[in-house]
Amino acid sequence: MKKRVLLFLLILSLFCSCFCACGDTPDTPDMPFELGDQCFYFWGGNNHNLVRGDITTRRSSIPCPDPLCDHGENCPVGNVAKINAVTEKRIYFSKDTPGSIYRFNGDLYCYDLENGTVEMLISTHQIAPMFGFVGENAYFAASEVVFTEEGSVDRVLWDIYRYDPNAKQLQKLTQESLPEPYHLQRTKETQEGIRLIWESSGCTSYIETDENFQNLRKTEKPALDIFNGYQYVLTPTILEDGNVSFKMEQLNVKTQERKLVADRIASSLRMYRETPESEPTGLLCQFLDEPDCYSRVYLIHFSDLSREVFIELPSEYAISVGTYHYDRLQIGPYLAFKCGKPKEGKEFGSWSLYVVDLRTKEGFFITK
Predict the structure, then answer these.
(1) Beta strand pairing status for 330-331 and 318-320?
(2) pLDDT tens digits for 135-184?
(3) Are strands 117-123 and 126-127 parallel, antiparallel or unpaired?
(4) pTM of the entire predicted model
(5) What are the counts of helices (DSSP H) followed by strands (DSSP E) for the chain?
(6) Are 181 and 158 in contact (CB under 8 A)?
(7) 315 φ, ψ to 5°?
(8) Dihedral angle at the C-alpha atoms of 248, 10, 4, 6, nearest 10 degrees?
(9) 32-36 — which CB contacts under 8 Å span 24+ positions?
(10) pLDDT in tens, 233-279
């Protein structure tokens, strides 16, 4: 039972991330990497390179700043284990530490897109996947392992860091380490100034701090956002096979009446918006009870709770609906999904992006 609870907490803290998989190495770009808003970022290839998917050309490339790089194991943007955050100017990604069984996702890098530089920020045990931002300053949690005298693992401690990319300054903010990671969920304006609301990885504890992670005090779980008079409540359930399914309910704020939006949906899901800035009008999800459920994505409309097939690919494909907030999954009317062809069991093969144009409802692959 304890193992299942730990698995559940891990999945719950990471369900905003996409499937981790490797695929064929994209071609080397013929021209230098250019900045622009019409591209998505993900990682793949034999060397887990950072990949840029261009909407205009419908092609992918490796946005490596080194023109002489062969994009092998020494590539500045290779061996990527996780993309933690993508902003207009920077990409934060983490790598595994080679040869260490106690370090994974522990080497954090910042790719300055404007200057074409890749800089390691910290090498530690693990970088928590969820980043938060106040202005351009990045907030994240990182851990270290405490060993016993015999050399076995005693405990894992977490600290909160802030990186100021303009000053190129990384600062540890916690005075005392934490037993679990916290991520910056939101900010709020008060008479004291900006206050930061933090959520624990298990979604069981909430604290409020200033911008320096000082003046701590416990706080209640922030109220869910209200859209057109409704809140949307997501409840996880551990299944007999150890997987996690979710139930979403629509809560009428005025009457407190609840209606079922969907049940037994996979952990890969996200809200549907016409534009990145607009309020959600539906839910994109997959149903675990359906055969070949990962090759099909449904759109449930919040207006009348009706559902329609949003994407359906051949059964050999698997689609990650994903809510990995560190990636820009929607640019204007374009909505991106990472998809691939599974091999045997749970191992995944070649991955690419499938993009839907919300104006026409037509989709296309971004290929090499």
Answers:
(1) unpaired
(2) 999 999 999 888 888 878 888 899 999 999 999 999 999 999 999 999 99
(3) unpaired
(4) 0.78
(5) 1, 28
(6) yes
(7) -65, -20
(8) -130
(9) 32/67, 33/61, 33/63, 33/64, 33/65, 33/113, 33/116, 35/113, 35/114
(10) 888 888 887 778 889 999 999 999 999 999 999 877 888 988 888 88
